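User: Could you go from structure to sequence for me? I need the amino acid at each position, not a summary. Structure tokens:
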């Protein structure tokens, strides 16, 4: 899907960045959690897929709230009413007279208030992983934290912002590559002090009295194991919005992008009346295998400590190139990496860059690239014959060489990548393949 153009809506004196994608029969406005960044969200495949899926059945309008992302920074701490006005300004700028709202986490109360205040502009309401009250527990709402707890949490977030973010609470099941990307995302979206202040401001939220006044059809989604917002809070909200539907989902990740299909499928069915067809776990992908040539001899030569430092540098360089070329790190064992790409040319260029980087630190690395159908069950490593072929291709490569299969070579015709024939090789367990060295 082609990205939309980031534009700006004027809300008072503040510029609010927004982006429109898709061309569905109705508008859907996403009200994000407490920080966001329109550009960075496209950089992670799971988040990009989440955006694409929402855009597949609606005209999707996303925006960065004031003080975050691409919107004006340093604009003070607005209350919910001011931020609700920002939603209205974005809708006006995007030419949207009526829209469905999807609010997740801290965006839930904001979407709720907008739906109650502007029923004529709210087609439907979807809420995920959200809450009605954030501070000062009472008999009616015992899940809220105390003010002291919120202050302590805000201080912890500020001190570890973008480095030691609270993933045990927000996303305990995500993998290491997602954690690394999320650190960059949060650092780009807000400063440590802004994150602290936003948490303290959000602590004032209490929209309990608003819930019974909502007239729009509403769906409330919540994962059973969510620690940041308890599933009982989702039930509370659904019980108080007239006619609301409550859907309890498996999982413990508060962030909506992880296993986002389970959320999007429910929203799509609720808003369109049609349940989307389940997608196959099988996808076309390009695998890249790399490993160090002569590692045993080099480790013996350098000694354990020096070898460990060199391998650490090797890992840093490989991960830098994977990030640069959009590769997803799947596995690393010793001095070898397995990565997945959605474009074969990027995989080849990444392999060439890695080999070049390693020459600079005195290592000889070989790489193999193959494109084929792989199975990607959620939460599991990719598997299938294409993965085995990629590993066997890499095993045929010499030091500093990137070998690719004929399948991959054919797919990058016109890319400008040059190849030299390496003949037909017998690959153990997978038959013969014609191989080419990328240049």
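Assistant: Here is the amino acid at each position, in order:
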């Amino acid at each position: 899907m082609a990205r939309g153009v980031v534009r700006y809506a004027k809300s008072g004196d503040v510029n609010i960045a927004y982006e429109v994608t898709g061309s569905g029969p109705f508008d859907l406005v996403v009200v994000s959690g407490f920080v966001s960044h329109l550009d960075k969200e496209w950089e992670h495949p799971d988040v990009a897929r989440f955006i694409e899926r929402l855009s597949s059945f609606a005209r999707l309008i996303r925006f960065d709230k004031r003080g975050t992302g691409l919107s004006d920074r340093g604009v003070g701490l607005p209350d919910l009413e001011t931020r609700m006005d920002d939603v209205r300004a974005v809708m006006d700028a995007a030419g949207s007279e009526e829209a469905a709202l999807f609010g997740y986490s801290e965006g839930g109360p904001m979407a709720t208030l907008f739906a109650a205040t502007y029923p004529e502009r709210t087609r439907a309401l979807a809420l995920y992983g959200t809450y009605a009250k954030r501070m000062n527990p009472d008999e009616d709402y015992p899940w809220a934290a105390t003010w002291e707890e919120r202050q302590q949490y805000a201080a912890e977030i500020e001190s570890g912002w973008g480095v030691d973010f609270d993933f045990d609470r927000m996303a305990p099941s995500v993998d290491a590559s997602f954690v690394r990307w999320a650190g960059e995302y949060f650092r780009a979206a807000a400063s440590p002090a802004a994150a602290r202040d936003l948490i303290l401001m959000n602590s004032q939220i209490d929209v309990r009295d608003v819930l019974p006044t909502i007239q729009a059809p509403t769906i409330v989604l919540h994962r059973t194991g969510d620690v940041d917002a308890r599933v009982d809070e989702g039930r509370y909200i659904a019980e108080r919005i007239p006619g609301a539907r409550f859907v309890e989902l498996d999982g413990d990740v508060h962030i909506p992008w992880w296993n986002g299909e389970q959320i999007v499928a429910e929203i799509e069915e609720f808003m369109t009346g049609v349940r989307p067809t389940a997608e196959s776990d099988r996808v076309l992908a390009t695998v890249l295998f790399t490993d160090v040539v002569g590692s045993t001899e080099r480790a013996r030569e350098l000694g354990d400590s020096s070898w460990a430092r060199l391998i650490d540098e090797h890992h840093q360089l490989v991960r830098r190139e994977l990030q640069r070329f959009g590769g997803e790190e799947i596995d690393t064992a010793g001095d070898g990496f397995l990565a997945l790409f959605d474009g074969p040319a990027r995989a080849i260029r990444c392999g060439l860059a890695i080999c070049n980087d390693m020459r600079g630190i005195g290592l000889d690395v070989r790489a193999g690239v193959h494109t084929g159908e792989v199975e990607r069950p959620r939460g599991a490593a990719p598997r299938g014959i294409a993965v085995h072929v990629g590993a066997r291709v890499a095993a045929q490569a010499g030091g500093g060489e990137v070998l690719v299969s004929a399948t991959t070579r054919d797919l990058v015709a016109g890319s400008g990548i040059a190849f030299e024939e390496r003949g037909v090789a017998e690959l153990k367990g997978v038959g013969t393949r014609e191989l080419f060295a990328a240049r």
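One structural detail worth keeping in mind: The radius of gyration is 25 Å.
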